[in-house]
Amino acid sequence: MKLCMIGTGYVGLVSGVCFADLGNDVICVDKNIDKINNLSNGKIPIYEPGLSELVIKNFKNKKLKFSTNLKKSVKESDIIFICVGTPTKKDGSSADLSQIFNVSKEISSSINKFKIIVTKSTVPVTTGDQIEKIFLKKNNRKNFAIISNPEFLREGEAIRDFIYPDRIVVGSNDKRSSRILKNLYSPLISKGASYLHTSRRAAELIKYASNSFLATKITFINEMANLCEKIGVNIEDISIGMGLDKRIGSRFLRAGPAYGGSCFPKDTKAITSTADKFKTNLSVVKSVIKSNENRSTLLLNRVYEILNKKIKNKTITFLGVTFKANTDDMRDSSSLKMIPALSKKGAKIKYFDPTGYKKEFSKIKNVFNSLSIKDSLQGSDLVIIHTEWNDFKSINFKSLYKGKKFIIYDMRNIYSPKKIKEQGFRYYSIG
Ligand SMILES: NC(=O)c1ccc[n+]([C@@H]2O[C@H](COP(=O)([O-])OP(=O)(O)OC[C@H]3O[C@@H](n4cnc5c(N)ncnc54)[C@H](O)[C@@H]3O)[C@@H](O)[C@H]2O)c1
Question: How far is the CA of 87 from the centre of ligand 1 (A)?
């Protein structure tokens, strides 16, 4: 099939290249000229394991193209996937849908034959209805169908998640388009993915309900960790003990820093705002948001305690600054709150992240990017393991310190407290 992905970010690029690899002809469109030029020259704008090889392979065999020309790309395609961003509005209240509506207007004026318009971006329930109204201003109802097909891939495991998804959700009120979409996904369905057909509104809501539930699970275990710290119980035992119950499951049940990333923070806010609009109080999700927002302050207070409230002139190392491993995505990472707060109190911050330098810290005083784990640890008073990259899972700290020993605060509970303490380090973990 001829597909067009509008928005070549994490979702548009990954799903575009995977569709191309399944034999479709795909054009990935973006308004960012540099991004499109770089992609056409084999330079991948994001860090995602396996992505680069797949893009280069499919670009070379001409199944994947890149373009900044939205109108032409739409005209040449049968199915148009909207994959632009839906960030939180500047006032923090709800989802900013301006990118969605802008591209909808552009697409709607480029319809030359029947097109299926699929919203892959995460959009609040009833957005599909609004997109349909935009299309109806310029087009006959017979010439298009608006479908919701939310994306569930996780950064860091995006390609695997796309090819082997737990489920594919298609929300459509149009039978013909549903059949075409099911056919498009048939190679994944035949490998075992569940296919769920729902109304368009239900599909939109499934995505928000799923993300809110996962955010709730993380927040729940983080709060349990707070209790564990007070009563001398190991949170890892609680996670394992709970996770073995099949009704609960062990995933998203590991205590750590506040959840971050491009999805959970914005999607939890967006769903409460939608519910408020429909006069329904999602009190559980509201509590989750509040608890998560407080978490970085709580962990910062723990850092202050560990350093006996003497932060000025201390050197603090961050191992990992992204919100999770295997991605370069800094959106809503808890390091964005913690590092500026520690810098403000007079600490010198050194950070090492496998995905390199982060422009987000360029204007923060006394924050330095280290080029290796070893370099980041030199002269450090406190080492914070912030992200669970494999690179940090078996560091021989003993061989890497010179002079004074640093304290270790393991925010991912990667190390065995006993073994690290035996090496003579003061070691703190979560829960
Ligand atoms: N990142 C994830 O892990 C993930 C997972 C599932 C769902 N989602 C959802 O998918 C959507 C996209 O997320 P993302 O992380 O890929 O975003 P992103 O910011 O990485 O990419 C969005 C892209 O859209 C482009 N764009 C914006 N307006 C455009 C226009 N008018 N014409 C052409 N291109 C335009 C931007 O330049 C950008 O490259 C969001 O709604 C998000 O919630 C994201």
Answer: 9
